[in-house]
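Fold this sequence, please.
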Amino acid sequence: MDYHFSKMMTVTISCSCLMMMMFNMAVGAKLQPDIMAICDATDYPAVCQSSIIPYLNGKTDPASVLIMHILAGIQTTEGAIEIAKNALPSASHYDADRYQVCLENYDSAMDSWKSAIKYIKAGSGFDVANELSAVSSMISSCDDAFTNDDPTVPNKSSLGDVDELIMHMDSNCLAINLKAFPDSN
């Protein structure tokens, strides 16, 4: 088996195992009712609950939960970066270009995730929403590279599942932002 393919599969499997572990932790963990209510108001409550488990810090207000979920988004985006980097050496020229598009967009998404945290701390919900919307656009651009901009074609690359997870996390963050900053949206 090719070393690069083997390493890519290991990273892919590691991301899958991480998400299963986070889900199992959420099932076994008892989240505080305030956090459960915040996650239940998102489009993907199970993703919300499982993602924030590693970041629980005793705070239950929407802004704190939003930061926890963004930190999980950062970690998941870092995993996507690793998958893309590991896929590059064995990719065809055409797919290498696609992975490069994704890497560039993931880097920009990381900047937006981090800026969103800065704006949460500054109390600027409007700017948080802008940064979170940018994350969605960047991840969509990665998917578009593999689907030729056709929304009816699923991304079957090694990044398809992690991109979908990041999009779900980002959607949740936008919903939580509405609770954290109801007057700013």
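The two ends are 51 Å apart (CA to CA). The chain has a mean pLDDT of 87.
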